[in-house]
């Protein structure tokens, strides 16, 4: 373990969730972040991780982003954990610090693998699809909210084949949570995109938690409509969209097309599985609470863009982008009352 150098760029909920356990496991991990208070707390007091995976206070090696130029080490693994809109500059900044045999790992929302590959090379990026949950509401403190026994991490090569480095990455990530290797990387990526398109903006629009938007009948049916539209776009781009929170992608399509029992079955299953997600707040709602820019254009906006490329209309995802943008700009506040703007889709 000791001979592997790992960098985590972006130490929020996800970066902390990855970097903390890897440090505990004995790897040489450098945590790099641009939030000054966050770095100072980690430097002086360590990284605190609490919640469903127990309480831990972990001494970590944390640096401010401007301190990166003062270190001489190079890294075997560079985890990109920043927001999607920061992917390009983050990758460019870390390229000189990547060992010749090293690789980037995109542990982000949306599908940013191509952005990284175009800058670093397609042989320099592996995908990491996260289904874990967590939040960071104060500096140096991560709260994990997902079920420790549930699948948390899926890793894959962009070409879908198994490789020694992929096996190493899966072993690495097993210290963070239940992990698996996939040969359907893009289908898994699109599945996670669908989840993010459902839950993230709905929480931002209503102010409800991840579990609440799945349990609430007023939001649940709209989530299914969002999912079905996004699934159709993915399938028409040739992706074999993987199960979405344990429910087959085709079940969402049937529910959207036939309503009745098919819709009721998916709604019931979604509500039952909501407890697996914990009561945490999705990252988009956390961003709105902090007054930060959201990733809406890289989630539902990405679906709209990909639909446009093949001539597929995406009315509900387009509407979601418009409503969430109004919330982000402060024109409206997160509220269940905002569902009136989606009346035609329930």
UniProtKB/TrEMBL annotation:
Keywords from the UniProt entry: NADP, Oxidoreductase
Gene Ontology annotations of biological process type: pantothenate biosynthetic process
Residue ranges of domain Ketopantoate reductase N-terminal in the record: 6-149
SUPFAM superfamilies for the chain: 6-phosphogluconate dehydrogenase C-terminal domain-like, NAD(P)-binding Rossmann-fold domains
Segments forming domain Ketopantoate reductase C-terminal: 186-327
GO function term, MF aspect, one: 2-dehydropantoate 2-reductase activity
Family matches, as Pfam families: ApbA (PF02558), ApbA_C (PF08546)
GO cellular component annotations of the record: cytoplasm
Family recorded in the similarity comment: Belongs to the ketopantoate reductase family.
PANTHER family given in the database record: 2-DEHYDROPANTOATE 2-REDUCTASE (PTHR21708:SF26), PROBABLE 2-DEHYDROPANTOATE 2-REDUCTASE (PTHR21708)
Protein's recorded name: 2-dehydropantoate 2-reductase
Organism phylogeny: unclassified sequences, metagenomes, ecological metagenomes
């Amino acid at each position: 373990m000791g001979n592997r150098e790992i960098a985590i760029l972006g130490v929020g909920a996800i970066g902390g969730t990855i970097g903390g356990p890897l440090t505990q496991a004995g790897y040489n991990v450098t945590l790099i972040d641009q939030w000054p208070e966050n770095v100072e707390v980690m430097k002086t007091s360590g990284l605190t991780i609490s919640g469903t995976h127990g309480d831990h206070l972990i001494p970590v090696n944390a640096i401010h982003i401007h301190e990166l130029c003062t270190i001489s080490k190079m890294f075997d693994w560079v985890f990109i954990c920043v927001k999607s809109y920061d992917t390009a500059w983050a990758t460019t900044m870390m390229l000189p610090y990547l060992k010749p045999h090293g690789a980037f790992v995109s542990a982000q929302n949306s599908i940013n693998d191509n952005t990284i590959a175009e800058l670093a090379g397609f042989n320099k990026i592996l995908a990491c699809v996260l289904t874990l949950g967590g939040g960071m509401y104060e500096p140096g403190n991560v709260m994990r909210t997902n079920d420790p026994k549930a699948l948390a991490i899926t890793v894959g090569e962009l070409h879908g084949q198994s490789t020694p480095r992929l096996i190493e990455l899966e072993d690495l990530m097993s210290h963070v949570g239940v992990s698996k290797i996939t040969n359907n990387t893009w289908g898994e990526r699109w599945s996670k995109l669908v989840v993010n398109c459902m839950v993230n903006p709905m929480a931002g629009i209503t102010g409800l938690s991840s579990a609440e938007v799945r349990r609430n009948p007023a939001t649940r049916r709209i989530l299914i409509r969002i999912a079905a539209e996004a699934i159709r776009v993915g399938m028409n781009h040739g992706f074999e969209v993987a199960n979405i929170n344990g429910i087959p992608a085709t079940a969402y399509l049937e529910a959207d097309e036939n309503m009745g029992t098919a819709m009721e079955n998916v709604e019931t299953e979604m509500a039952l599985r909501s407890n697996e997600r914990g009561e945490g707040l999705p990252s988009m709602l956390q961003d709105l609470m902090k007054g930060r820019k959201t990733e809406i254009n890289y989630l539902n906006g990405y679906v709209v863009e990909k639909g446009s490329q093949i001539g597929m209309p995406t009315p509900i995802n387009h509407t979601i982008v418009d409503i969430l943008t109004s919330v982000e700009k402060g024109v409206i506040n997160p509220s269940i009352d905002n569902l009136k703007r989606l009346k035609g889709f329930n």
